[in-house]
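Entry 14. Ran structure prediction on the chain below.
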Amino acid sequence: MITYDKLLVGGVWTAPASTGVLRVRSPHDQSPVGVVPEASRADVDRAVAAARAAFDHGPWPRLSPEERRQVVARFNELHSARADELAALITSENGSATWFTTWMQHSLKDFVDDFIEVATGFDWETDLPAQDGHRTVVRRAPVGVVAAVIPWNAPHQSALVKIIPALLAGCAVILKPSPETAVDGLLLGEILAAAGFPEGVVSVLPADREVSEYLIGHPGIDKVAFTGSTAAGRRIAAVAGEQFKRVSLELGGKSASIVLPDADVDRVAAGLKGLSLGNNGEACVAHTRILAPRSRYDEVVDAVAAMMSGLTVGDPSDPGTWIGPMVKQAQQQRIQSYIEAGLAEGARVVVGGPGAPDTPGLEKGFYVRPTLFADVANSMKIAQEEIFGPVLAVIPFDTEDEAVALANDSAYGLSGGVWTADPEHGLDVARRIRTGTFSVNGASRDMRAPFGGFKASGFGREYGAVGLSAYTEYQSIAV
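Output, structure tokens:
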């Protein structure tokens, strides 16, 4: 078991202001993973004061972009060297299968390198052509002190997509990890502290929702960067709007995968294994609505059912496991309630269904049965609300126009895809879908491309040059 007795406040390990602790247990068997201090409002005040001093008077925002890149590169070396250790820890905290956490942690080195490369070629300061004997300098100034609030499902990816561009831009950052993954949050703090950022620039404060809201509303915060639920995003947007804070919100999704009549159904099923059911299905980008042509509906259902029936559900630390436990009991119960709702509304269970798996050794864990529903109408609760678990719905359509309309008939607009023998036609379909990201035949998105959502999936974009821009303000200086 890992124990921390201090918080990282302004880059300095500091005794917490209160005696509260967060106890993290494995969702697989309830064994203890770690104990960390629970940050209080007083800790937030100290972290914000340190960040303000660092930003308003310290060297970090006044260093050259190259000097900041060098410190971020040192962090990347230290962080990537511990990828396997971090993957194992996150698996023990949130139940993500080890195949996923290992892949994710190792991918983050290239992810940070991409940001460093973007920062190298970024237009930090440019001159406009002279007019009337004067020139205008346009510069990108750091936005200020950033509160980065992240979820538990992919904690280091969610953290780095915020803190790395913020740091490269010259901001000071306060990271607020989720209570469910508080231990890896402070281990990330260890690595940040070792990288050599100036005093005050980075803080890590694991805390509950009440303290998170206090952080978000703190007058010393200039920008909030949040990944999480749409409900929480609405509250953050309201608080930030009252105070004119900059804000970026990456929220929920209910993404559709459109299977066109000429698609290779076996390829579809193989692709949906990761796109729909990666990370236990606890992913905002998961393709959870499968839109199938009525002419091939049964074929699509059978292929997806065969794929799901072959998934191993079990101990997330076992390399052979595809789906582990849900992160906590409340999440397990929430998913079960959606499965019951699907049955009540008349959908047909093809794979899975209510209740936990009966596999020996899983009795103490927060497991659910991966579930596939057929005969689903897009108006049903299971087709409209984000479940955040391994539950898929196959919805029929008759025409391509109807498929596009069904895909767009959602409060969300984060991700989605189309499957077809003609990729160029797939691109035409993609242009008709109101989502921030979209794939044709399961193609992987370039990590330098903007990522974010339409509608209730949030606003603002992360990744690449656009993601770095989100942590800057334009300043125009006439000379």
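The chain has a mean pLDDT of 97. Will compare against last week's run tomorrow.
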